[in-house]
Amino acid sequence: MNWTPSQRKEVITSELIGGLMRREFSVRYQPQINTHSEALIGVEALCRWTHPILGVISPAQFIPIAEQAGLIPFIGEWILDAACKQLMLWKHRHGVQLALGINVSAYQLRDAQFLSVIQRTLESTGFPADYLHLELTEGAHVHDDMVEQLRAIRIAGVGISMDDFGTGYSSLSLLSRLPVTTVKIAREMINGKDVSERAEIIFAAIVSLAGQLNINVIAEGVETSKQLEFVKNGGCSVVQGYYFNPPLSAGEFERAYFMGRA
Ligand code: C2E
Ligand code: CA
C-alpha cells in the first residue's frame, strides 16, 4: 500500500503502543572494529520495528514520534535490557565481553528514574557497567539537570559517548561540560565526495584533541577502503560502518563474528 508521508506518520503514531505490545520491535547489532588488530571490540545496538503491514520502520521515523508520545522510556528500557542479555549470552557462549553502545534520547536523561533503570538492568543481567556506553546526540538540548544525571551515570561507571560528533549540535564546549568518555565522529566528516586535505587535517585534529582529553574515538559510517585509510591516517583505530557490516540481527551477528567471519 502506498502511504503519503503524513498518512504514514499518523499510522505509526497510532500503531506504536500496539507494536510494542505485539513484540514487533527487535535489536540490530553493528560491529565496532579495532583496525590495528582487526578485533571485534563492541557493538552499537540499533532499534528496528517490523510492522505486519508497514514493513520495517526506521528508528529515524519512529523515535521522534515515540518521544512525542512519551513512549521513549519503555523503548529505551526494553532495548537496554535486550542488548545486555544478548551480549551476556555471547560472553557465556563465546568467552568475549563486547562493549555496548546504546542510543539515548534527551527525554530519557530528563527522567529521574533513568539511572535506577540502568542500575537495575546491569544488576539483573550481570552486564559490567564499564562496558556500557550511552550515546547522546541532542547536544543542543543539554540542560543543567541532564548534566547532573550524566555525572551520576558516569560515577556509576557507565561511559558517555558523544554521537555524530563534528556536525550539528555536538559542539566542542560540550566536551568540557559533560563527562564524555568517547566521541563518535560523524560519517559526514569522512564521506565527502572528495575527501580533501582540509578534511584530513580537521579529522586528525579531533582525534588528537580527544587523545589529550583522554577520550576514546570511534569513526562512524566507514563504507569504503579509501575511507578506512583516511580514518587510519587520521590516527583513529576504532571504526564502525558498512565497510565491515550494516547492523545485523543477533543470529546474523553470531554467524558472522563467532562462527567464522562471513
Ligand atoms: P545513529 O545513532 O547515528 O546511528 C547510526 C545510523 O547510521 C544507523 O541508522 C546505522 O544503521 C547507520 N549506519 C551505520 N553504518 C553506516 C554506513 O557505513 N553508512 C551509512 N550511510 N549509514 C550507516 P539507523 O539504524 O537507521 O538509526 C538511525 C538513528 O535512530 C540512529 O542514528 C539513532 O539516533 C536512532 N536510534 C536507533 N536506535 C535507537 C534507540 O534504541 N534509541 C534511540 N533513542 N535512538 C535510536
Ligand atoms: Ca549512535
Question: Overview of this structure, please?
Answer:
The protein contains 10 helices and 9 strands. Strand 6 (159-165), helix 7 and strand 7 (182-185) form a beta-alpha-beta unit. The protein is globular, with a radius of gyration of 18 Å. Strands 1, 2, 3, 4, 5, 6, 7, 8 and 9 form a 9-stranded mixed sheet that branches. It has helices at 5-21, 59-68, 72-94, 106-109, 114-125, 144-155, 173-177, 197-212, 225-233, 250-257; strands spanning 25-34, 40-51, 55-57, 99-104, 132-136, 159-165, 182-185, 216-219, 238-239. The chain starts with a helix and ends in a 5-residue tail after the last helix. Helix content is 44%, strand content 20%. With 262 residues, the chain is of the alpha/beta class. Helix 1 (5-21) packs across helix 2 (59-68) and helix 3 (72-94) runs parallel beside helix 5 (114-125). The protein binds ligand C2E and calcium ion (CA).
